[in-house]
Amino acid sequence: MSKTINLGVTDLSFHRIAASLVANTLEEIGFTVKRTYSPHEENFERLKAGDVDMLASAWLPSSHGIYKSDVVKEVPLLELGLHYKPYALWGVPNYISEEITEVSDLLEPEVLSKMKKDIQGINSGAGITRFSIEMMEAYGLSAAGYKFHTGTEDDCFSAFENAVAHKQWMVVPLWKPQFLHYKYNIRELKEPKGLLGSVDKAVLLLRKDKENMFTKTHLQKLDGLQFTNDIIAELDYKVSREGKNIDEVTKRWLKNHH
Which member of 162, 202, 211, 217 has the greatest number of CB atoms within 10 A? Predict the structure, then answer.
């Protein structure tokens, strides 16, 4: 009889991709996997409470370090694999003037006259949201008339795609990996104040009290799961915009590369 693993998944498309790659690997080595989808903080709360045994994927240290540190006060954790190296960014579509290279350029009079003032983000628990809210004040963007909005993934991505369809000037608070990078050339703006955090490592977290469910070989296999930002972005695009089945997409990738 196979053992059941409860896998907590941060409920955003690229996290679902990484979790699918992990889940298919676990099933291949004989586990039954139950996936639970939750927002960022709730996913870590579930890990702390023992409602989930593993979490995919934690971005450490910048984006999710604050949540992990809360969990490890009560539960030791094991970090496995290197799913990719994520980082937060603010970007603009590549058709916008190449003279706009950093965040402070958004305050230039000729840019203010053309740029959409609404900056559409995602949910309030995301690292990019926390960072962006700080940036609005630190760079004087709110005072210049820009407004940052939290919302869903789709609110953010649709705002970008609609703006591109009409060749509008706009800023998107984003990150890598994300499926928009697979189709669109998004120019990253330099952010010299360092408010967007560092390049993180995306890893699988396992509660240490669940480590005995795995053999040494199992843990080595999970630790050997290594992807890249570009791989995740491509798989994310196939699912999110081409409508392909997530587990079929990730199984095919694993078959060809692992």
Answer: 202
Q: Are residues 175 and 248 in the same domain?
A: no
Instruction: Tell me which residue range forms the domain holding 27.
Output: 4-85+200-257
The H or E element that residue 237 is part of is helix 229-240
Q: Is 204 helix (H, G, I), strand (E, B) or coil?
A: strand
Judge whether 93 and 47 are in contact, CB under 8 Å: no
CA 184 – CA 75 distance, rounded (Å): 41
CATH number where 223 lies: 3.40.190.10
Same domain, 91 and 26: no
The two structure tokens encoding residue 162: 């609609």
pLDDT per position as a tens digit, 48-69: 999 999 999 999 998 899 999 9
Residue position matching structure tokens 């630790």: 223
Host H or E run for residue 175: strand 172-176
Question: Where residue 134 sits, what CATH number does that domain have?
Answer: 3.40.190.100
Token pair for 8: 């907590």
- How many whole angstroms from its chain centre is CA 193? 22
